[in-house]
Amino acid sequence: MRKVLLWLMVSLFVVVLAACGDNAEESSSEGEETSGAGADNSESEEVAENETIDTLSVGFVPSRDPEEIITATEPLKDLLKEEMSSQGYDIGEVDITVGTNYEAVGEALSAGTTDVGLIPGGTYVLYDDGAEVVLTATRAGLSVDSDDPKVWNENEPIEASDEQATSYRALVIAGPSEKGQELAEKVNNGKELTFEDLNSASWAVMSSSSPAGYIYPALWLDENYGKTITDLENVVQSDSYGSAFARLASGQIDVMVTYADARRDNVDKWQSEFDGEGTIWEDTDVIGVTPGIYNDTISVSKNSDIMDEDLKSAIQQAFMDIGETEEGKEVISIYNHEGYQEAEASDYDNEREAQEMVKSLN
């Protein structure tokens, strides 16, 4: 009898242990399933964190040939998508356009039809009711930075320096025409040009919101001669610096105004596309130098349907990150940009004063 009871107790003990083991496995299995569900939820939440934007539109001003800008900035589309994704935005398409002129990009930002614009300070200031500056471009300085045009001519070719700069000069350039060379010879002989000298030449300028192509040359004329661009008798407006250089090379114009490193950008084209007889350094001379101009901006639209503070911050960080990569530097070099730093509206107060002065002169 005792043996029977002992056998029953052992059997019962084994059954209990087996049941406990099954329960433990079920609990473990349920825990794994729960853990797996939690991971799936976590992954879903991670994916859901990125906001989707169908199209981000980016506008460029035509400071270079529009087709050249479109080609050079094609890689920017994927770079922006990648950087914006890391900032919490999945961009379906990056639409890059080049405005017909500087004002067209400013107007598009104000209207909200363009989300982001790479525009000069002068264009930003003119349209700052609808555009907000978020970044200022940095660029390489130049081997010459003098107020004296003769110094520029004596130290050609102009090269890039190792120092980064947040401002640049505008230059008044005389071309290979008879009148252009006459003005250059006078400057290189240390003589002062008169307004009559300048007025006897034909000029090419850019649109009125261009700092280097209009605003600062107008101030230079005012400071040195008490005159402005509208006082010149023979002036044409070019749609790009490239077309102005082509006119200068052919002798259609005698003088043009441009940013200081524009000749470096057109060294090859001067002979291959513009049919210059000599090199650009041989055929052109500086006859005027403006004060420094604060660098180009990356501005966003205040009236874009998709723009808010978070998106603005993401765009700001994305472009700064792009400017730190080799591929990004190659893309933004089309505008001679080498990187970006955060900007404030007050950085361009001098530009506002310059535009007010130009308005009063006109």
TrEMBL record:
Acidic residues composition bias: residue spans: 24-33
According to the record, the residues making up region (Disordered) are 24-50, 343-362
Which keywords does this chain's UniProt record carry? Answer: Signal
Q: Does the keyword Signal apply?
A: yes
One matching Pfam family: Phosphonate-bd
* Stored PROSITE patterns: PROKAR_LIPOPROTEIN (PS51257)
According to the record, the signal peptide region is 1-18
Top-rank lineage group of the source organism: Bacteria
Gene3D superfamilies on file: Periplasmic binding protein-like II
Recorded protein name is Phosphate/phosphite/phosphonate ABC transporter substrate-binding protein
